[in-house]
Amino acid sequence: MGRSSIDQTTRARSRRLRREMTHQEVKLWLKLRELNRLGAGFRRQGAIGPYIADFVWFTARLVIEVDGDQHGNLRQATDLQRDDWLRQEGFIVQRFWNHEIDGNLDGVMQAISERIQCRLEGN
């Protein structure tokens, strides 16, 4: 038996996604790592059940997603289904568009910090 309940295909996909992060994911990851040094626990491309979250902090039950053009109308229904599943598992999903990370990284980090505070306070 494996060391966790994560399907091997999902685990392999997660590793591949870590190697192939987008420019915006890399920018955000560098900032989230700063929070990790202060006590946060974000992981990149973390497997949660059948899904892989761009960034997840399991203790705070917080998922951060970075969306680009591929998340337009065609992916909207899939994203909603995925978000519903994650919410049923007790996670909060916070999504940001690539252009937000490129143009307002400080604002993105402020929004994430506020969400972290709420989660840690039990909201």
From TrEMBL:
InterPro entries, per database record: DUF559 (IPR007569), Endonuclease_DUF559_bact (IPR047216), Restrct_endonuc-II-like (IPR011335)
SUPFAM superfamilies on file: Restriction endonuclease-like (SSF52980)
Domain DUF559 stretches: 10-116
Domain of life of the native organism: Bacteria
UniProt-listed PANTHER family: BLL0828 PROTEIN (PTHR38590:SF1)
Protein name according to UniProt: DUF559 domain-containing protein
Originating species: Methylobrevis pamukkalensis
